[in-house]
């Protein structure tokens, strides 16, 4: 039985990670920062300079911003947030953008009031917004997390400095995550402690999946998968999960419950389980516990990789889904570990070349690998330690994959950004 401290910490991790967000989280972070900066400025900005780390640029360039009328790009996210965003809504900052605000944003974009610069920073999620109107200026910095405002200056004077605040409650300790305790927590958690957030994940993420299945976004990948493959479990899971991602990337204004700062990861670690449980007519409690397991396993894997990197987060979240299916059907810890290892032996090399509608295809491919890994594990088949990057212990394999994604692919990340900017 988990001790009370670990139990409460795992609950806190879930509450911090499983929050609603509208649209791709990087442009939404920019819109949130711009809305906050506009509040401090007290008037409509006349000039904005957005200094963004490479991974922010990479993940904003190609996605449609929700409630924007089809706008894309950093300038659009920043300007729309500044004129129509509501910072009190956090990652749903653009939920109530009016047509008047959309029109004003288009006018300001035509006036070219927002300039984008590359921020040379070792922090992958990092941007600074500088606003000016008349004689007034505001500078706002966000780093490490999407709405983590760390510093605000107005007219050259610091009005907020998070780094200097000593009495702020610490974030939940993710370093306590491990596979054995995650399973124990999923087995024993009082479902009343997690029901509200899990119900929100089921409701929101499936609603977006159904919206994506209309075929109105991107390539209509969900419908193509459904119509092109046999009507089996994998087809159902892949089609709905990919459709949800494509809708998000294509500007759908419906919120999803995210994981590790990513809507795609929140979708990929939940929708396959919901589809599986419904098709197999499993009890609701079984789905709840599997979702707890999958969400925490996703966070655990991303702990080593970081929120943004050249490593596609769909791999981590899909791996968690495959392992959670094994968990949901009664697989023991050994089979769960085999599912994880079988997945990571297969697809640890999918690159992240920015947020865009083709993320949906990467999710579909990752789920294919994860479901194969599940079936291999349920037949007690697993790749041996030291086959490629696999290690003696599953936890070591997870950390090694994280090391590849965070450190080994650092130059890959730079090359991807260079290609995207120069071509």
Radius of gyration: 21 Å
Question: Helix and strand succession?
Answer: HEHEHHHEEEEEHHHHEHHHHHHHH
Could you describe the largest sheet, including whether it forms a barrel? 6 strands, mixed
Per DSSP E runs of 2 or more residues, the count of β-strands stands at 8
Report the oligomer.
Answer: single chain
User: Based on helices, strands and strand pairing, what is the structural class?
Assistant: alpha+beta
Q: Strand percentage, roughly?
A: 5-15%
Main-sheet strand order equals 3-2-4-5-6-7
N-C termini distance: 55 Å
Mean pLDDT: 94
Give the CA-based shape: globular
Outline the low-pLDDT stretches: none
Helix fraction by DSSP (H/I, runs of at least 4)? 40-55%
Helical stretch tally: 17
Architecture overview:
This protein is of the alpha+beta class. The model has no long low-confidence stretch (mean pLDDT 94).
Q: Which SSEs are present, and which pair or pack?
A:
Blueprint: H1 4-17, E1 20-22, H2 25-41, E2 47-52, H3 54-60, H4 74-84, H5 99-110, E3 114-118, E4 126-133, E5 136-143, E6 149-154, E7 157-161, H6 179-188, H7 191-212, H8 221-228, H9 233-249, E8 255-257, H10 263-268, H11 271-279, H12 284-305, H13 313-328, H14 333-344, H15 359-378, H16 394-408, H17 410-422
Parallel strand pairs: 2-3
Antiparallel strand pairs: 1-8, 2-4, 4-5, 5-6, 6-7
Helix pairs in contact: 1-12, 2-4, 3-17, 4-5, 6-12, 7-9, 7-12, 8-9, 9-11, 9-15, 11-13, 12-13, 12-16, 13-14, 13-15, 14-15, 14-16
């Amino acid at each position: 039985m988990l001790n009370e401290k670990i139990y409460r910490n795992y609950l806190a991790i879930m509450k911090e990670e499983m929050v609603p967000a509208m649209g791709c989280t990087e442009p939404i972070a920019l819109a949130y920062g711009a809305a906050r900066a506009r509040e401090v400025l007290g008037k409509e900005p006349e000039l904005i300079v957005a200094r963004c780390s490479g991974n922010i640029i990479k993940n904003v360039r190609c996605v449609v911003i929700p409630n924007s009328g089809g706008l894309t790009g950093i300038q659009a996210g920043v300007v729309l947030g500044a004129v129509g965003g509501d910072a009190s809504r956090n990652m749903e900052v653009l939920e109530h953008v009016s047509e008047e605000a959309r029109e004003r944003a288009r006018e300001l974009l035509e006036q070219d009031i927002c300039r984008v610069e590359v921020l040379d920073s070792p922090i992958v999620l990092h941007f600074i917004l500088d606003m000016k109107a008349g004689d007034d200026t505001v500078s706002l910095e966000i780093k490490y997390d999407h709405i983590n405002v760390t510093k605000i200056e107005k007219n050259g004077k610091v009005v907020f400095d998070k780094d200097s605040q000593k009495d702020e409650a610490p974030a939940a300790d993710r370093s306590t995550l491990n596979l054995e305790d995650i399973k124990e927590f999923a087995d024993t958690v009082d479902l009343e402690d997690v029901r509200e957030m899990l119900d929100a994940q089921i409701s929101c993420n499936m609603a977006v999946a159904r919206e994506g299945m209309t075929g109105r976004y991107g390539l209509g990948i969900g419908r193509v998968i459904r119509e092109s493959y046999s009507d089996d479990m994998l087809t159902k899971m892949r089609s709905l999960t990919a459709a949800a991602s494509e809708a998000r990337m294509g500007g759908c204004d419906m919120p999803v419950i995210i994981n590790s700062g990513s809507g795609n990861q929140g979708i990929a670690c939940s929708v396959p389980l919901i589809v599986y449980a419904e098709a197999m007519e499993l009890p609701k409690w079984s789905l709840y516990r599997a979702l707890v397991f999958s969400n925490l396993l996703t966070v655990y894997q991303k702990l080593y990789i970081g929120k943004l990197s050249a490593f596609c987060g769909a791999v981590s979240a899909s791996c968690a889904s495959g392992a959670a299916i094994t968990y949901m059907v009664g697989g023991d810890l050994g089979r769960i570990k085999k599912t994880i290892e079988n997945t990571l032996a297969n697809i640890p090399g999918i690159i992240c070349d920015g947020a865009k509608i083709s993320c949906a295809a990467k999710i579909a491919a990752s789920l294919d690998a994860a479901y194969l890994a599940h079936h291999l594990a349920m037949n007690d088949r697993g790749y041996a330690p030291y086959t490629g990057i696999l290690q003696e212990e599953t936890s070591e394999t997870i950390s090694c994959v994280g090391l590849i994604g965070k450190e080994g692919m650092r130059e890959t990340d730079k090359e991807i950004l260079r290609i995207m900017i120069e071509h």
